[in-house]
Amino acid sequence: MLQPDIPLTGGISEGLRVATLAEAHGAALCPHSLPELHIHLVAAAKAGAYVESFPLLDDLLQEPLQVSGGVVRPPERPGHGILWSAEALERYRVR
After folding, report:
1. Looking at the domain that runs over 6-90, which CATH code has it been given?
2. Four-residue CA torsion sign, 11, 15, 16, 21
3. What pTM did the predictor assign?
4. Does the CA dihedral 68-90-92-39 come out positive or negative?
5. Residue ranges covered by each domain of the chain
6. What values do phi and psi take at 78, rounded to 5?
7. Cβ atoms 5, 30 nearer than 8 A
């Protein structure tokens, strides 16, 4: 099992390279942390198996990922699909 953390391993392009290596070696791709960022990678990769699910960012998002019956589907928006809540982010602004 490979657990890349996309922000620490070079971004989505590097994540796709890790996914290709996982597939070539018969390993599962199960990225670490930030499911909102990793869901598209897992969905696109043949070796994609699991995405961690925890509500770390849910209060900052307009539309958090919805898990139903152990399944989560990626947003159908361009890019990473994350919609930040401007109102929630404002609460954390340091002036």
Report:
1. 3.20.20.120
2. positive
3. 0.83
4. positive
5. 6-90
6. -65, 160
7. no
